[in-house]
């Protein structure tokens, strides 16, 4: 069967094709490669390039990062602020060029002060992570263990730590800062300029080139970092809850076997 290059399936990473911050299952990886023989396949993650590559099987000294990227027609890290097509880098952008150092430090100082007053089951390290396209804020600390990550996620479900934090950020930084906020993954909040959510990557998938853009993501509810692209009129959105559900839905849509 000839590949239909005018249809693209675009996948979130964490919670959609991998468990949160864990490696992709080889069966899911193989399924996506079978899908790629039928339609174009793209990934769009909020994490930086290094984290996404690690989840998708890149290991220093074992294989090449370029080979992992080239397994997909489109590869978007940081919502598309770092963008690849056919394995080649086509675009980069940085939040610092938009905000400037003064505003950036005002924001970081506020976030650190807010987190210093939080009482959580555990706190570890790396509470702020600066990326090209966003600032990632993590109340528990990104250096937490997998067990501590899951403990915080359960605690957050009950106590709405991140939802309340986002309300405080919106109250403080509405106006001149022009920032949006979304719950990212299991443990963090993404802060990014308005319009720099996952819809940013759609500028590299113009309507004249595609008849249909399918999007699959798990954080599609309002406040989640898949919400805007899921709701965008340019995409056909599907909410999923796990990699297993993702490949089941895609298999039904495109008649790709699950092995």
TrEMBL record:
* EC number, UniProt record: 5.4.2.8
Q: Does this entry carry the keyword Isomerase?
A: yes
Per its UniProt record, the required cofactor names are: Mg(2+)
Q: Offer one example of a GO biological process linked to this entry.
A: protein N-linked glycosylation
Positions binding alpha-D-mannose 1-phosphate in this chain are: 21, 131, 142, 149, 188, 190
Subcellular location as annotated: Cytoplasm
Tell me the subunit arrangement: Homodimer.
Q: Give the protein's recorded name.
A: Phosphomannomutase
**Gene behind this protein:** 107366430
